[in-house]
Structure formats: structure tokens, C-alpha cells
Amino acid sequence: MAPLTAVITGANQGIGLEIARKLAQHANTRIVMAARSEEKGRTAQAQVQADAAAGNEVLLHQLDITDSGSIARFAEWAEQELHMVDVLVNNAGFAFKGNAFGAEEAQQTIGVNFRGTANVTEALLPLIPDGGRIINVGSSAGKLSIVKDTALRERFERAARREELEKLCDNFVDAIRLGKHSQEGWPSSMYGISKLALNQYGRVLAQQLQPRGIMVATVCPGYCSTSMSSFGGSQSAEAGADTPAWLAVEVPAAEAMSKSGRFFRDRKEEPF
Ligand SMILES: NC(=O)c1ccc[n+]([C@@H]2O[C@H](COP(=O)([O-])OP(=O)(O)OC[C@H]3O[C@@H](n4cnc5c(N)ncnc54)[C@H](OP(=O)(O)O)[C@@H]3O)[C@@H](O)[C@H]2O)c1
């Protein structure tokens, strides 16, 4: 039987590295670690290969999810070398540290967490077979409740196309630029809005891919001790990798579609 092929973005460190490690321990699985820096990726690849189940191949390929050329090169390589991507784990993410806040910073954060993730997903979608899985590493910081203005919140909740989410993100960035974001009912969390857009994008995509039996699930890994949290999280990156890995390979195929479009934390569905 051909191995299951799983691509993990941002796999060189933190939760992504631990997701790659867990998936590599799953029998008959081919792991593709996507990393922005090949050098950092190579060290991580060696670690994952050392812990992999017998016979599992662990590959590495450069991918900067904000660089359209890098995405195109990755997709072309995947088509030629992998032929299909059964599981895509969109783990790569970014947050500014400290008090950084501004329109450019918001644009950059949304560019990685929402636009970059959506662009990678759409570039790889032709390679995802019917019955495949897309797992987005979202965040509880991006729940609908962070938007206090009811009309704005409803626009997010009702968004049924990526373009509507793009527009909402543009509105957020413009409001920051004009110094009106609080007045308009936006939160002061650039990361929160970027993950809210990603969380809702997961629901939009789940709806679109329902006819093909492709599961799209979003996960909050919990507050983990990684570079992103300046190693201040309350649990390990390995613990944070548990639910994404469970959704990626452990949930039986017969149950997968009942989880599509849902938001998970600690292997349990949560309201989004
Ligand atoms: N840690 C937490 O408490 C927590 C909580 C909720 C959600 N999350 C989410 O969990 C995911 C993993 O985060 P983490 O905690 O493991 O943080 P991390 O250690 O900082 O890892 C982030 C990963 O994303 C990669 N990345 C960032 N920008 C990228 C880009 N443009 N292209 C490709 N890769 C890029 C990083 O690559 P480089 O090494 O090259 O920078 C790194 O591999 C993120 O989506 C994050 O938002 C984390």
C-alpha cells in the first residue's frame, strides 16, 4: 500500500517539529517537512528521521508561506515528486513580540497567518485527493468573541468566501492606519484578527470541500512553550502537537467528515 503523504509547514521548530515527529511515528507515512530556512530544516529533519517508524521517509523542502515564488516552487516539486498530498498541516505562524502594533505590523501578521496559509492551501489543493485532510493550526486567541462590535462580528461569522475575509482584514488594517480601530469595534490584537480570519477560512474551505470528502479542521494547540511564547507557555510543544496529529492521522476515515469545519482543543470540539 502506498504511504500516506503528510506535509507540515513551519516544521523546523516548536509545535510543527513535534507534529512532524508524531506523524513520522505513524506507520506507512511519508513526512514532508516544509521550512522557511533549509538550514534550520535540515537539523530538524535529522531529528525526525531518527525517531521515525521503520520504513518511513522524511523529506525536507524550502517553503516561505509569504513568498509566492517559494509556494509555486514547492507546489511544482510536490506535484513531480510526491504526486499527492493526503494530509496538509498548516502550522507555520507568526506573532510580533512585545508591544508592536501598527498597520504594517498587522498586514505582516495577517500575511503569514491567514493569507500565506490560504495561498499554500490553494496551491496544494489540486494534489489533495478526495478523502484528504487539511489541519489548520489556529488559536483560541482568534475566536469570534474578540470582536466586540456585533455587526463586525456577524460579518466574520457569515463570511462564506475567502474574499470577504480578505476585505475584513483590509478594513482592520485601514482602521489601524486611521487610528480608528477601537472606535470601530476592533480588538487591539493583530494576531487575534489574523487567526480569526484563519479560523473562519477553515469553515469556508470545509464547506467548499465537503463534496470531495476533504476534511478541514482547525486546532488551538494550547499555550505552549515555544519561541512564539518566548518559552513561557504552560505546556510543551509536544503536548500542543497532540490534537493536530490526532486529527491528521488518528481520527478514523469514517469519522473525519463529522469533524470538518469544526474547531478543536485538547481533542475536544469547542465553540468557535
Ligand atoms: N505557542 C503557543 O502558545 C501557540 C498558541 C496558539 C497557537 N499557536 C500556533 O501554533 C503554530 C506554531 O507555533 P509555535 O508556537 O510552534 O511557534 P514557533 O516556534 O515560533 O514556530 C513557528 C514556525 O512557523 C514558521 N514560520 C513563520 N513564518 C513563516 C513563513 N513566512 N513561512 C514559513 N514558515 C514560517 C517558523 O519558521 P522560522 O523558524 O523560520 O521562523 C517556525 O517554524 C503557529 O501557527 C502559532 O500561531 C501557538
UniProtKB/TrEMBL annotation:
Taxon lineage: Eukaryota, Viridiplantae, Chlorophyta, core chlorophytes, Trebouxiophyceae
Protein name as annotated: Carbonyl reductase
Keywords: NADP, Oxidoreductase
Family: Belongs to the short-chain dehydrogenases/reductases (SDR) family.
MF-aspect GO terms: oxidoreductase activity
Lineage: superkingdom: Eukaryota
PROSITE patterns for this protein: ADH_SHORT (PS00061)
Any coiled-coil regions, as ranges: none
UniProt xrefs under SUPFAM superfamilies: NAD(P)-binding Rossmann-fold domains
Cross-referenced Pfam families: adh_short, adh_short_C2
Keyword Translocase: no
PANTHER family: CARBONYL REDUCTASE 1-RELATED (PTHR43963), CHAIN DEHYDROGENASE FAMILY PROTEIN, PUTATIVE (AFU_ORTHOLOGUE AFUA_3G15350)-RELATED (PTHR43963:SF6)
